[in-house]
Amino acid sequence: MKVAVGVHIIADLYGVDARLISSSEAISPIMENAIQEGHLTKISSEYYQFRPMGASGIALLAESHLSFHTWPEYGLVTLDIYTCGDRSNADRAFDYIIKVLKPTSVDYRKMERGSQIKEDVRITDPQMML
Amino acid sequence: MKVAVGVHIIADLYGVDARLISSSEAISPIMENAIQEGHLTKISSEYYQFRPMGASGIALLAESHLSFHTWPEYGLVTLDIYTCGDRSNADRAFDYIIKVLKPTSVDYRKMERGSQIKEDVRITDPQMML
Predict the structure, then answer these.
(1) What is the CATH code of the structural domain delimited by B2-129?
(2) If you measure CA to CA, which chain A residue comes closest to B5?
(3) Which residues of B touch A121 (CB under 8 A)?
């Protein structure tokens, strides 16, 4: 049986109000709230402020990761939400971000990650690998 | 004129020797070296060890990000290298990782991010956005 390990939403958001995405202070609550809305488990998160404007944020999750990179000069956010486990979690986090940022258009793709894995190749004895 | 802000390599690596990817100690030098090989600028990196095995690593780069998630029980690494600037940097980092991990097969995609941006929509006065 084939199994995929996770689902990855890859979205470029256009026409976002630059004031919402110019600073790390602006994007950090959006990202942190998206993690909560998605019922995701944060291991750590890191934000960075570019000069004169623009920000990046990346969160390491127990379920994989979530990242934000912003170009306020273009009204652009490039967003990745990659989660394992309950597939609706990524959707919930994504829907929250769209609700807050209100892009005028979105280039959206959703990918299966690890989709060539077959359950029967699973190595069941972890000691084999140490 | 249309411009893309970056290039994103999305790759699932299969058939990787589980010993190379079972621990955060094993993957961290690979990731850090890939950043150097790609001439990328690290802002921060974070690693996490799953029990009984498997690891995640994520690096925030001035050029965007690089992430690793491993499932040694499947011989699987899901890898993302997303960079702005010189497009050959992502390729160099990717080539290094492939050379070290020697997967038996790779599901590889390369995407333009922010590809709907038009240069003429650029807002040139940053004060407009503050």
Answers:
(1) 3.60.90.10
(2) A71
(3) 74-75
